[in-house]
Structure formats: C-alpha cells, structure tokens
Amino acid sequence: MGNAVITVAGKGGVGKTSISAAIVRQLVRDHPEARILAIDADPAVGLATALAVQVKETIDDIRKAITASGEEDKSKKTAIELLGESKFRIFDAMVEQDGFAFLAVGRPEAAGCYCSINSYLKAVISMVSDEFDYVVIDGEAGIEQVNRRVMERVTHLILVTDPSKKGTQVIQTIKKVADELVMYKAIGVIINRLNDPQVARYIDTGGIPVLSEIPDDKNLALCDVQGRSVMELPDDSNLVLGVQRALKALGIA
Ligand SMILES: Nc1ncnc2c1ncn2[C@@H]1O[C@H](COP(=O)(O)OP(=O)(O)OP(=O)(O)O)[C@@H](O)[C@H]1O
C-alpha cells in the first residue's frame, strides 16, 4: 500500500484529539519501522498535550517568518512558493519522540479568518506526505478545512461523533463536502462515548459505515487529569481497543 494520510474530523469536543492520539499510539506499535507523522491541525492545539509533545515552532510561526522575509524580497514570490523553498524549516520544526514525528499548525492570533493558515496547511500536507508512511491529522472541528480543500490529499477519513443528533449531523455534512472535494479511499465513523448499547440503534450515520463504538474510558480520564500521554494508555483500555477495531475495519492495521 502507498502512504496513508488519515484525517480525524467531527463536531467539537467529541473526542477527535484523543482518537487521533490513540491512532498514533497504535501505528507506532504495529509498525515500528514506519515513518509516522502526527499533525495537530486544530487551532485548539490539543494533540500536543494528548501526546505529551513540547512544540518548538509551529507552521504558523514559519508562515509569519517567511511572509515577513518575503516582504523584503523584491522577487514577488507568493508566500506558498517561499514556503516550498523553506521546506527544511518545516522538517526542522518537527519534534521526534516515541517513534513518531510531530508538527503543529499553531494558533493564528489574528481574529476571524484562518483561510491563509489553511492554504499553508494544505501546501505543507502535500509537501510532507510523501516523506512518511503514515500521516495522522487531528483536524479542526467542523467542515472548514474539508471545505477549503486542506484535506485534499487525505486517503482515510475518520469521522467522529458522540451519540448526539448534532454530532451525527456534523459528520453527514462533512461527508457530503468530502465526497465532492476529497479523493479519499475509505471513510467511516467512530461513535465515541457510547455507553448504552441500546442507544446504538437510534444513531443515524446517514449510511456511513460504523468502524467502531467506544464507551467511556476510565484510563483516558485518568491520563487527562494527570497530564500523561495517550501513548501510555494500557492495551486493554476502551479507547485503544476501539481505535484498533476502527483501523482494522479501514484496512490500515
Ligand atoms: N471515550 C472517552 N472516554 C472518556 N473521556 C473521553 C473519551 N473521549 C474523549 N474524552 C474526553 O473528552 C474531552 C474532549 O475530548 P477531545 O479533546 O479528544 O475532543 P475533541 O473532539 O478533539 O475536542 P475539540 O473539538 O475541542 O478539539 C477530553 O477531556 C477527553 O479526555
């Protein structure tokens, strides 16, 4: 198989970050020889915390620096061209630890529009994807990044919802947009925090295949409180088992 670019998307607060971190954990264990990159593309910057990574420099920092240098440059190159020329800076910003590389998009300070950082992010994903066997992207909540074609190169789209109607509506909207804009190979849903199996039959994913259902995970709650990495979750914790099932269903594990 070629490289896999896995994106995790869904409504805010449903568990995208925890699931992305658990996917990284699983890939590191299943494929110790593989080159694995985790990208924190959520401006809320949770993946770094979930994986206990100390971020050195973000894509947004690099964007600002090269935009500033571009303004002094009389050759009128576009910022994305400049970014291509400073590819080494992106690789330099990656933190290597526990068997994976990590890159954060950062939190653009200018209020309002993330369009510009999103077009950088898209360029960065294309630029770095070929250098890794697996890329795992923890996306921003909602449809914006899919809509702006940031996720164009994604091969596996994992939609996360909780059992709420709002959650399932968001994943159906993301799927609709992705069907037009993303050439994904596989798509599926993880239903997170589903504690009552009786509730499952009322959940309407709009025909999107369910990859796995994950009940509340006590170990994750403990990790959260103690600020420990999801990499340290025990093998039998609900999140780990649910992510294993999902990766298997997608043909990745
Ligand atoms: N299966 C689970 N069991 C217990 N706690 C969970 C589970 N899934 C997520 N949580 C907790 O719910 C909270 C939100 O999860 P997480 O940050 O992963 O969601 P998110 O979708 O990435 O949120 P955001 O959209 O804000 O980035 C966290 O405190 C996380 O530990």
Summarize the structure in words.
This protein has about 250 residues and is an alpha/beta fold. The protein has one domain: P-loop containing nucleotide triphosphate hydrolases (Rossmann fold), CATH 3.40.50.300. The chain has ten helices and eight strands. The protein has helices at about 15-30, 45-50, 60-70, 80-85, 85-95, 115-130, 145, 165-180, 220-225, 240-250, and strands spanning about 5-10, 35-40, 95, 100-105, 135-140, 155-160, 185-190, 210-215. It has an eight-stranded mixed β-sheet with strand order 3-4-2-5-1-6-7-8, sandwiched between helices. Strand 3 (about 95) and strand 4 (about 100-105) form a beta hairpin. The chain is globular, with a radius of gyration of 18 Å. The mean pLDDT is about 90. The structure holds adenosine-5'-triphosphate. Adenosine-5'-triphosphate binds near residues 15 and 192.
